[in-house]
Specification:
Elements (H helix, E strand, L loop, with lengths): L1 E5 L5 E3 L7 E3 L2 E2 L21 E5 L2 H9 L6 E4 L10 H4 L1 H11 L3 E6 L8 H5 L5 E6 L4 H8 L5 H13 L3 E9 L6 H8 L5 E6 L8 H13 L4 H7 L6 H17 L3 E4 L1
This protein binds iron/sulfur cluster (SF4).
Iron/sulfur cluster (SF4) binds next to loops.
Length: 264
């Protein structure tokens, strides 16, 4: 993997997620290269070959937050903070250290067990929460859509260790792939280790978008009977498939007293 330098991107960016003003991506591009990833639509490099890191990242991050009141910063919006290059470059660990020393906290999302390396820093920021994302129950299917990312087993083990260390945890079941993702079975798997479970549907911007092209090609090769259905469901926010699933999950939520956030 080639790791180039990026000089022009802002370090601290506005964040549209609830309760967050800002987000930071320590890497530009993501080696996990999930084929459905929305960030692929704006990729600057071929993620199978090259990602970028910010030049003078820590100095610029420190400057960028110097005028802010301590607050929660989101990490993991457009790239995984614990993709393989983090073992070498430690951009994420260095950023967490800056946040911890200045009284900030983070909400961080990853697919990698490497996140447990930094439990010491999360513990210094008690308002922080750390999550993993999952979308498939079968390893074989997962491999089709996100073959460069760590296994579910590794992610769930990480959740378990984080929770055991007293860190607030969450799981993001995302994207729910119609007729493929078994949301209920994933909820059962992660519920013991997750303080909160978010559920987001597969949602595509346009048929020209890179992530749709990838998903369509995987469907054509492996689930040809689903391609046409996806063309309807993935581009409609209120398709009956989503309404029925939402209803079912709301029933499970009230029956089992689960802390679900159903964004379907
Ligand atoms: S790990 Fe996240 S950011 Fe990276 S490719 Fe997968 S979905 Fe995109």
């Amino acid at each position: 993997m080639k790791v180039g330098k990026c000089f022009h991107r802002k370090i601290l960016n506005p964040c549209s997620l609830e309760a967050h003003n800002y987000q930071v991506d320590p890497y530009i591009g993501c080696e996990h290269f999930c084929r459905y990833c929305y960030a692929l639509n704006k990729a600057e490099t071929d993620w199978e070959k090259e990602i970028l890191i910010h030049e003078n990242f820590i100095k610029r991050l420190t400057e960028a937050i110097s005028s802010l009141d301590p607050q929660d910063i989101y990490m993991g919006m457009n790239s995984d903070p614990y993709q393989p290059s983090e073992r070498t470059f430690k951009q994420t660990r260095k950023a967490l250290d800056v946040f911890a020393k200045r009284g900030f906290s983070v909400s961080l999302l990853t697919k990698s067990g490497l996140v447990t390396r930094d439990i010491d820093l999360f513990a210094k920021m008690p308002k922080s929460s750390v999550g993993v994302s999952l979308a498939f129950q079968k390893e074989q299917t997962r491999h089709l859509f996100e073959k460069n990312a760590p296994s579910n087993k590794e992610r769930i083990e990480a959740l378990k260790r984080l929770k055991g260390a007293g860190i607030k945890t969450y799981t993001l079941i995302c994207p729910v792939m119609p007729f493929v993702t078994n949301v209920e079975s994933l909820i059962e798997l992660v519920a013991p280790y997750s303080d909160k479970i978010w559920i987001y549907k597969l949602e595509m911007e346009s048929t020209e978008a890179q992530n749709w092209q990838n998903v369509e090609s995987i469907l054509n090769q492996n689930f040809p009977e689903l391609t046409e259905k996806y063309r309807k469901i993935a581009f409609s926010g209120d398709y009956p498939y989503w309404r029925r699933l939402r209803q079912r999950l709301e029933e499970i939520q009230s029956k089992k007293y689960l802390n679900l956030r159903i964004e379907l």
